[in-house]
Structure formats: C-alpha cells, structure tokens
Design goal:
Helix content: 55-70%
Order of helices and strands: HHHHEHEHEHEHEEHEHEHHEHHHHHHH
Strand content: 5-15%
Distance between the termini: 64 Å
Radius of gyration: 23 Å
Low-confidence stretches: 1-8, 494-502
Oligomer: single chain
Mean pLDDT: 91
Length: 502
C-alpha cells in the first residue's frame, strides 16, 4: 500500500504572491530558472548525478571492466542474467498495468450535459499556458483554442514566446486582439526549455486552475469544464487530472499508425493502470489540468528536466497528492517523420532517466513517500523503459550472430536457466506486446491499425535508436531541449498534392 502522506504534505519552495512577482521581474526570472534548484536541489535535475550516485556508477563500471578482463565468460553470464531478469520484471509490470487499465473504471468520465450544467458563476478562473517556439501558424492555434467552451471573463490564455523568437512574434502581431489572450515574452536565458517558459508564465497567474496546450493541440471544446467537474468530484487529495491525447493524422503513414497505437495503449490502459495500482503517474506534456495552489506549492516545473511533466507527476505523488485520468481527448499531430520522431522520443527517454536519478537521490525518503509499489514503478517503468530499450540492440545483435554463426562463445553466455528465461522474453514477451497492440486497436475501434499492430517489432527498432541517443545525450547535453518540428503532416500532404498535380 502507498503510505498516506496527505496529512503531511511537502512544500518544495515558498512562492511569493503572483502580484508581487508581476512587479518584481528579477525575482520572477530567478524563480522561473532556479527556484526549485535553489530551494530544493535534491528535487532538481540541474545536476545529473549527486556524489553518491557518481561513486556507485564508477564502482559498478570498474567492477564490470575488471570482471570482463579477469573472467569474461562469468562476467558476461552474470550481466546477461541480470538484464534478462530486468526484462521479465518490466514485462510483468507492464502486463499488470495493462490488465488493470483494461478493466476500466479508473478514468473520470464527465458527460457533455454535466459539463455544461455548471453555472458560469460557479466556475473557477482558468489559466491556459501555450509555450511556443518558431511557430508561424500561431493564429491557427489561437482559433482552435477559441473553440473552448468556457466563459471568456474567467479565461486567461498566455502565449509564451521566447524573447529572440522573431518568427513567432511576427505571427503573434497578426492575431486579432482578445481580452482573454495575452502574449508573454520569456527572457532568453538558460535553460532554454519549455518548463522554464511555463514557470515564467504561470507564476504571475492568479487563477484557480491551470493547464498547458502545445502549439499543434486541438482540445475537446468542453475539456476545461470537464476538468473542473472531475476535480470537484475527486476531492482535494487530487492535484491534477490528465486528459487523453490522440492524433488527427493517425492514418498518414505507418509511423503515425504505430504512434497512435503507442499513445492509445498509454492513455487508455497504462495510465489508468497506474491509477488503479496507486503508483505515481508520469504526466504528459499537455492537457494536464492542475489546481494552481498545489502547483505553486510543489515548485511548478523543473526547468532543467526535459520531461518536466513526468517529473512533476512524481513530485506531486511524493508531496501526498494523486493524479486522475480524464475522459476527454486532445488531438495532436503524430510525428510522420522518422528523424523527427527519434528526436522527440530521445528527449522523452533522456528525461525519464533524469527523473529516475533525481528521485532516487534519497532512497529511504522516496521509499517512505512512494511505498513499495511506487518505487517498483519508478525503477521498472521510469528507468527501465529507456534503459532496456537501449539494450535491445545488443541482444538483437547476439541473436543474429548466433543464428548466422552458431558461435559456441555466444552459447556459453546462456546457461540453461538464463537461456530459458531469455526464451520466455523472446517468445511470450513479444507475443504479449503484439497482443496489447491488437487489443488497443480494437479498443480504439480502428481495424485499420491491425497491420501496424502486427508490425510493431519494426517500431521497436526506432525506439532503440531513440534510447541509445538519449543515453549519449544524458552525458553530453543533459538539459538540451531538442524541439519537435510541428506541421510536418501539412508539409507532406502539400508535397503529395503538388506531386499529384504535376
């Protein structure tokens, strides 16, 4: 059981009132960039490793090198056995989450009638943060947000532009002025990340609720109202509800179909499974709806973490709050380009490793806050997902070498116990993952996704490239924010039409 810490919630830093920060620009900039790292450095990803983690990593590396030099076969067997056990643990955990989520009942559903039935004078003020960078189609984004069914006098839409982003600034000047939409210019200071921009825009807001939308988002028009009803239904122990994410170009090519299955499984089964298990919920980067006072208490977003959303979900859980899943969908652009997809996924994987390293800095404390199930999720799910994906290529290479050469040196690395456990991973593991893909296609009522579900092993190859890049970047550029290019579906469609016309 996860320990009940709701009576002893943690405040990670004291944030001055929004009116004070609005007047004191220097203090606002300092808090946006360094507030969490200064007040609670143990929870900030500004440093990748603390001293004891560096020592442990050095000792393990030295031990592995020594073992490979002195007794390479024994060392190889031990390492492979440990990794195979990790694969089995990760597979078992994912299957358990998937099963719990597939049972249903863990997503908060709010009907259209219930959402619309709340009188305007009973709705809270709502800040909508929209961090944008090099987005020339800003006007189209604002028009999509204008479809939100929410009283305009209670809405505070903040377009967060980097100070040196002249392209987006020009687009912002072309937008029809609206009282509830304002442009906020974010200072061009390190770290140049989305969470820093969100901090800068949020800390001067005086709203009761807050959410984030990305530049390509098209949210359900009733989503804000649904979130308000959901949060009132769940009660004060909940800090946030996460809406589902889907895609408006899911049928564009095989990559977008894989991406749709990936997201469909995540938001329909995995996240509800985490809720059912009582484990921390790693948030998505958009369409998460917060109580503003709680968000301020936990220090808002860590500007040094490149998956600030997943980190925030863990921090909320450690502070004694819970996260729910909302039955409302925001449509996004599925990445139709493999290179762009790898850039985006490698940032996510890098941030997952960052988040894991941050939250295990005080093992005893995090265990008391998360409980055994939460720690298992932190290790197996948060750290295991990118690290095991990065190791996939090594085992694929071993498998290919064995089938092509039957080298006895490779066979020696797999004594009977390790061999049979490895076979379980290879056969049952792959079949289980394929089944989850087929099941998700059926859940989404998308029979056109079935071929993609059966071809998922090819998608895992892209995941391996992204994970490998993430591990390298964690060493070379830990806080570098590799921006995802938006609008590629439009460019490819236009190019295709032009080619057809010619």
């Amino acid at each position: 059981m996860t320990p009940d810490v709701t009576q002893n919630r943690t405040r990670f830093l004291s944030v001055p009132p929004a009116s004070v920060l609005a007047e004191d620009h220097d203090q606002l900039v300092e808090l946006s960039c360094h507030g969490l790292a200064t007040a609670a450095p143990a929870y900030s990803a500004r440093s990748v490793l603390v001293r004891w983690q560096g020592v442990v990593l050095a000792v393990l590396t030295a031990g592995l090198l020594a073992g490979l030099l002195l007794s390479p076969r024994t060392a190889g067997v031990v390492v492979i056995a440990l990794v195979v056990l990790a694969y089995i643990a990760a597979l078992g955990y994912r299957l358990a989450l998937f099963r719990l989520g597939a049972r249903g009942g863990r997503t908060v559903m709010v009907s259209d009638e219930e959402a619309r039935s709340v009188p305007d004078d009973q709705l809270p003020t709502y800040t909508v943060l929209v961090p944008v960078f090099h987005e020339p189609l800003l006007g189209e984004l604002v028009e999509r947000l204008e479809r939100l069914d929410y009283p305009r006098h209670l809405l505070d839409v903040r377009l967060l532009l980097e100070a040196d982003d002249t392209e987006t600034a020009d687009a912002a000047r072309r937008i029809t002025p609206r009282e509830h939409v304002r442009v906020v210019t974010v200072p061009s200071l390190d770290p140049r990340t989305k969470p820093k921009a969100c901090n800068y825009g949020f800390l001067t807001a005086e709203s009761a609720m807050c959410t984030i939308y990305d530049a390509e988002d098209d949210p359900d028009s009733l989503q804000l109202r649904r979130a308000v009803v959901a949060m009132r239904r769940l009660g004060p122990s909940y800090a946030c509800v996460q809406a589902r994410l889907g895609f408006y170009n899911s049928a564009q090519n095989m990559l977008t179909r894989w991406f749709t299955l990936d997201y469909g499984s995540w938001f329909t089964n995995m996240l509800p499974g985490l809720v059912a298990l009582g484990a921390p919920v790693p948030l998505g980067g958009t369409s998460n709806h917060f109580r503003s006072d709680v968000l301020r208490d936990v220090g808002a977003w860590d500007p040094w973490n490149v998956t600030e959303d997943a980190d925030l979900g863990l921090r909320l859980h450690r502070a004694g709050y819970r996260v729910g899943v909302l039955g409302s969908t925001t449509l996004e652009e599925a990445n139709p380009d493999a290179i762009n997809w790898v850039r985006q996924r490698s940032r996510w994987y890098k941030g997952y490793i960052q988040t894991f390293l941050v939250h295990v800095r005080s093992p005893r404390l995090v265990t008391s806050q998360l409980g055994a199930r939460g720690v298992a999720g932190l290790v197996v799910f948060i750290a295991g997902t990118p690290l095991l994906s990065a190791l996939n290529g090594f085992f694929w290479a071993l498998t290919a070498m064995w089938f092509t050469s039957h080298d006895p040196a490779i066979a020696a690395l797999f004594p009977p116990v390790v061999y049979y456990l490895g076979m379980v991973c290879l056969v049952l593991g792959n079949l289980s993952v394929l089944y989850m893909g087929v099941f998700t296609a059926r859940q989404l009522e998308r029979p056109d996704l079935l071929p993609a579900a059966l071809l998922m092993p090819l998608y895992w190859g892209l995941m391996w490239l992204a994970a490998l890049k993430a591990v390298i970047q964690l060493v070379t550029a830990p806080s570098y924010w590799e921006k995802t290019t938006h609008g590629l579906h439009r460019q490819q469609t236009t190019a295709a039409e032009a080619g057809g016309a010619s």
